Amino acid sequence: MVRLNKGPYLIILALAALAFFGAWVRTYALTPSSSCIYTLAEQNAAPADVLFVGTSRMGRGIDAGYMEKRLAAKYGRTVTVERISLSSSNVTQFRPVIRRYVEARGAPKLVFLQLIYNFKPEERRSADMPINPPRNVAFAPLDELLQIQKEARLNDHETVLPRSFEAGYMSIPAMLLAKVEMTIVAALKYPAHRLLGRTTGCHGAEMHRHMNPTRLYNSIDDQVTFQPETKARKKRRLANLKITQAYLPFAPLSPVRQFENQQMKAMIDQLEEGGSKVVLAYLPALGERELGPKVLGEIKAAFPNNPLVHPMSLFAGEEGDKLAISYVDTHHVDHYGALQFSRYFAQRIAHELN
Amino acid sequence: MAPLQHLILILVAWVLCQALARRDSVHVLSAFGLVALLIYAPVAGLVIALTALEAVIMVMVFSALPRKSNWRQYGAYLLLLNLFFVDFHHLALNMPVAILGISFSAIRIFMTAKQLLSARKGYEYGDLYWIFAAGFYLPALVIGPVFSGLDLKTQYEKGAPEEVVLRDYRMLLMGLVLAMIVAVLMGTLAELTTLRHSQLAAAPFYFLQLFCAFWGQSLIAEHSSRFFGYRLPVNFDAPWLARTPAEFWKRWHKSMANFVLQYIFLPLNLRGLSPKVATTGAFIFMGLWHNLSIGYFVWGLGHGLMLAFSPQELKGRAQQVLMPVALWVSVIGLSYFANYGPYA
């Protein structure tokens, strides 16, 4: 048998080569649903006039292409609109994308930033875990990951141990190892894409399709009509309504919201330094259609320099009932709902840009 | 800790060990295991350290007692109570913590302490070090195997004699492919099957996902340890060839099966329980070791009863055909029930 006691040197060399190659070509392994968002941020193009940033609520509720057409047709405005939406209510995942957008393309004139608050009671403290989710570790450069990690102030409210001991927390050395690992894996999977000048998995028409309501990648238009509710769908809606009753309240000034507020302020600062006007956007869940005066006051206190737009007026009367019925689950609307929200925000864009 | 991250840490340790005598690499590996726990799971590292300290104290105190005394024979089993930390810590700490390594390290620490207490000649102070070495041994930190620290000591005294051959690199690569690619693929197939049909229909894919991840990481542990001259027990020996429950447990998670045989089944049997009852009891322990849940209690009970009551040899054509089918349907079904059933 041939002895190969020094063979690990070859393994180290191979892994190091892959890691350097991956870092050089800036490959990053992302799921197909999110890779298009990062492609959008990095493309060599002028910034959109208006950028929407938010979670899947925005992804399913806002159609960028439709708003452009509506602004041109109804308001006589030629405006480019883009949308960055990432699933899950982890707020730090938006920071590298926004930073990359501003660095690569410049700051949009107007940004609608969704109030990205975690809504799940079982994640009451864990909305901020991990501080840098896998998407960030895959996409963001090291210096930004470290900056986010260092700036984060975990909410140690009601815990016996500091939350840096909590399952899901990634220490800086662990994050560095994860980054190396992801770079190596991506270098194995995506070098051809990158060397051809593409980012992973999304380009051209596919990328633009991702700016439409994501469920079917179909654009909405004025032909979309309201679908009356079936018995089964009503049963589902009532069950979903009950689920939303257990959601965490907005409560922007409560201790559990301070991490999220801190991260949103960091994003606002970055955008405003680039010259953007940042407006906060509220996209309601099925059972959260109204924000009372107290909550509105707290949002104002937490973000005094940024106005808030909220489509609560859409939920009034018979049209409001239709909009409520358009919810396909607890917080995503169908194409009819997306049409209403997109029309509302198109009107707001016209107002803000005047 | 992902498989590739684990391997990276092992390789960093290997580079440092090039400046040392081959057998001294075990100290570096134990130190790196502690460092890995501080990086990924500091509370788990503390629990393992305290378990090791507890074991050291037990060995020192119980060794002064007669060999046949109950405390000296069975006192070390108290160490296994530390396994409850995995299931109940979130109640005491009001938050879940990372529990990397506790389940396997506690077993290794127990095995080392038990062997020291069983030794006719007693222990030497230097032997106590191997309790810590077993608890923190980096290659075995994530997924085992389980073994006694005295096995490491024996190899240390022989100068860490294992040589690395081409097969070790092939097995390492196979482990990475299994853990990082095949297991992920099986998981994707399981999700697709669940979406299109039902979660129950996806049970074989869930089982394969678990097997590939487990086997892959076991291969990484076993063959990377040989880089340092130390041999670890093999966990999987072509389990797909098993045709009876007895054969299955000679091929599947062998190190844990041997632990359960030696430290749970045998004592129960020697204390008067029938082999069938002792077997069932031993596997209930193994089930609850995985997870303190009804699902895993049923898993352990199911495997125990299968092993206790199934024929050791297959006689007749009917048994030769039906037994393997029954075996694999049960193995996959019990795994599904434990991990995805209503009592998971």
Concise account of the structure shown:
Chain A is built from 15 helices and five strands. Chain A has 354 residues and is an alpha/beta fold.
Describe this structure in words.
- The complex is a heterodimer of chains A (354) and B (344).
- The mean pLDDT of chain A is 86.
- In chain A, helix 1 (8-24) packs across helix 8, helix 2 (32-42) runs parallel beside helix 5 and helix 5 (94-105) packs parallel to helix 12.
- Chain A has 15 helices and five strands.
- Chain A has a five-stranded parallel β-sheet with strand order 2-1-3-4-5, sandwiched between helices.
- The longest helix of chain A has 18 residues, at 172-189.
- Chain A has one domain.
- Chain A is an alpha/beta fold and 354 residues long.
- In chain A, helix 13 (293-302) links the parallel strand 4 and strand 5.
- Chain B has 344 residues and is mainly α.
- Chain B folds into two domains: 3-158, no CATH class; 166-340, no CATH class.
- Chain B is built from 15 helices and no strands.
- Chain B has helices at residues 3-17, 25-40, 42-62, 70-74, 84-93, 102-118, 129-136, 149-157, 166-196, 203-225, 245-251, 254-270, 275-290, 294-309, 316-340.
- In chain B, helix 2 (25-40) packs across helix 3 and helix 9 packs antiparallel against helix 10.
- The longest helix of chain B is centred in the middle third of the chain and has 31 residues, at 166-196.
- Chain B starts with a helix and ends with a helix.
- The mean pLDDT of chain B is 94.
- Chains A and B meet through helix 1 and helix 8 of A and helix 1 and helix 9 of B.
